Amino acid sequence: MTQKKVVIIGAGPGGLSAGMILAAKGFDVQVYEEKDRVGGRNSSFSLGPYTFDLGPTFFMMIDVLQDIFKLAGKTLEDYVGLERIEPMYRLDFSPDKVFYPTTDRQAMKQELERVFPGNVAGYETYLKKEKKKYDALIPCLAMPYDSLASFFKLRFITSLPYLHAHKSLFRHLSKYFRDDELALAFTFQAKYIGMSPWEAPATFSIISFIEHGGGIYHVMGGLNQLSQAMAKVIEEHSGSIHLSQGVKQVLVEHGRAIGVELQDGTNVLADAVVINADFAHAMTRLVAPEHRSKYTDNKLKRMKYSCSTFMLYLGLDTLYDIPHHNIIFAQDYRKNVAEMVNQRVLSKDPSFYIQNASRTDDSLAPEGHSAVYVLVPVPNNRSAIDWQKEKGAFRDRILDIMEGRGDMPELRSHIKEERIITPYDWEHDKNVYLGATFNLAHGFDQMLIFRPHNRFQEFDNCYLVGGGTHPGSGLPTIYESGRISADLIMERFA
């Protein structure tokens, strides 16, 4: 059989995942990336001598990527160094209530008794029941949903008792724990998908179990090293990655994709096209309106999107004695989330995440220095926030809290390098629709068959990967989207 050619638009983690598998199976894989480096939001950048991950900093479900490397005939650990983080993170609810969850069962029970006495039995029940839920749902998420017939497949039917789509994540987790703040310790992960734990479906309780059951890892050099390793595997299998070569549009003839037009006007023909760009951005910029009967501009505007993020990247001339991962909760967390998701205003008392990766990895900054990463969930650009006007004051608000509750005294005096990324920047510089960094929202009306399909619905020979398609946002599920789409392409040309 003549070698089939696959063009992948974007060198983000979903496209790299699909590309690894397809290249290993003999396809001619050509990846076109607009930026000068691979990874998309899973890339890196430097400020002077300091190195930062642009986006994800939690590496979970490592078995998903291990399996993808195996499909490509490789071993993940041959390409990256992994360090398990224990305790997983510091959760700061108030100055007198700081919690350090760990996957060490005995240590976790002791920590529960220290901070939330009387909840050990609930924790044990949580582990037992959520393990059953995880085992039922993960196979369900690993298959495509192309039609209503998908709901009659055995894997989906067996998962039905565990979907819990009729109740909220917070309500579901509260049944295990007496203390609301402890329930929040197992529900704050809703922010990984850009949603409120009081609105996100209880289906997503598996996210906290993924952490508590399998642990959290750091990749030495930063999580960006995962994308670099995946790109290397593609090239080892004779695939090509073309950096600084963006795609202008998908070429469509007679209801099927036939290739792409590059930004320089060159046409590249292919047997299949994989879109690994932000979904709504791709629809409005890469697919002509006449080829979008389902995802029209008006339809895209009506869809629901996740929150955005305000980012601070700080190169410091000191190293603070705080954990690798830190989450500072607002005093009224529910109000903070409502302001972000429903009212779309900036909270005076925000919650946010601090990564102190130099505590674990001395390759990110000079000796005695540190590269500190700060992520603040904020409204997406459906808000009326003028970020050019607000970003200075909001930055100062975050630094004030970091110097106080964050246990980083005199932080401002140690800043040697700094970069800010606002929702405006995510949209206009990073091609993220509405600046919604976690892509389409994950309500049940935008999941499974109701989410854009891995086999694109608008025309043939086109496939989607990334957070805007099934199974959803987050590194492990994005990797899985690449595997699903690669499987569909291999079935198509078998």
What is the structure about, briefly put?
This protein has helices spanning 13-24, 62-71, 105-115, 120-141, 154-163, 169-174, 180-185, 205-214, 224-236, 279-285, 297-302, 333-343, 387-403, 423-428, 475-492; strands at residues 5-9, 28-32, 44-47, 50-53, 82-84, 90-94, 97-99, 217-219, 240-242, 247-253, 256-262, 267-269, 272-275, 308-316, 325-328, 352-355, 370-378, 415-421, 462-464. By secondary structure, it is an alpha/beta fold. The strands form 5 sheets. The protein has a 7-stranded mixed sheet.
Structure overview:
By secondary structure, this protein is α/β, with parallel strands linked by helices. It is built from 15 helices and 19 strands. The chain has a seven-stranded mixed β-sheet. The protein is globular, with a radius of gyration of 22 Å. The protein starts with a strand and ends with a helix. The model has no long low-confidence stretch (mean pLDDT 95).
